[in-house]
Amino acid sequence: MSGGAAGRIAALNGELTQSFLTRIAARYHLGIRDVLAAVTDVGGLQNLTGMLYPDSEIHLNAQARDRVAALCHVPQHVLE
Questions:
Q1: CA gap 39, 67 in Å, rounded
Q2: Mean pLDDT across the stretch 44-48?
Q3: How far is Cα 66 from Cα 24, in angstroms, rounded to an integer?
Q4: Spatial CB neighbours of 6, under 8 Å, sequence gap ≥ 6
Q5: What is the SS3 assignment for 73?
Q6: Rounded to two decimals, what is the model's pTM?
Q7: Distance CA 22, CA 26 (A)
Q8: Which site in 10, 14, 65, 80 is 20 to 30 Å from 39, CA atoms measured?
Q9: Which of 20, 19, 67, 27 has its CA nearest to residue 47?
């Protein structure tokens, strides 16, 4: 995924990760699972388990956080 279609996207103050990723997905006309699969890809394999519920919180590892930051054109410290 290149960042050109979405441009700069920043998390809202206090926004949960799932909500933020859902907004990113919408900007790219994708589902949240598609975005999660892209940012959690490890060696061509999806590193994604579990069910997503509307009130779920998602915890990303360092590599996935780096990918989200690059996708949004926002430094990782801004997304914290």
A1: 6
A2: 59
A3: 15
A4: 24, 27, 28, 71, 72
A5: coil
A6: 0.71
A7: 6
A8: 14
A9: 67
Q: Would you call 64 exposed, middle or buried from its count of C-beta atoms within 10 A (0-12, 13-18, 19+)?
A: buried
Token pair 């006309």 is found at: 29
* Start-end of H helices in 1-80: 17-27, 32-39, 62-72, 76-79
Whose structure tokens read 């915890």? 59
Nearest by Cα to 6 from 41, 30, 36: 30
Kindly list the distances between the CA atom of residue 42 and the CA atoms of 1, 16, 50, 54, in Å, as whole numbers in the listed order: 15, 24, 17, 25
Instruction: Report DSSP state, residue 31.
Output: -
How much of the chain, in percent, has pLDDT values that exceed 90? Answer: 1
How many C-beta atoms lie closer than 10 Å to residue 33's C-beta?
13
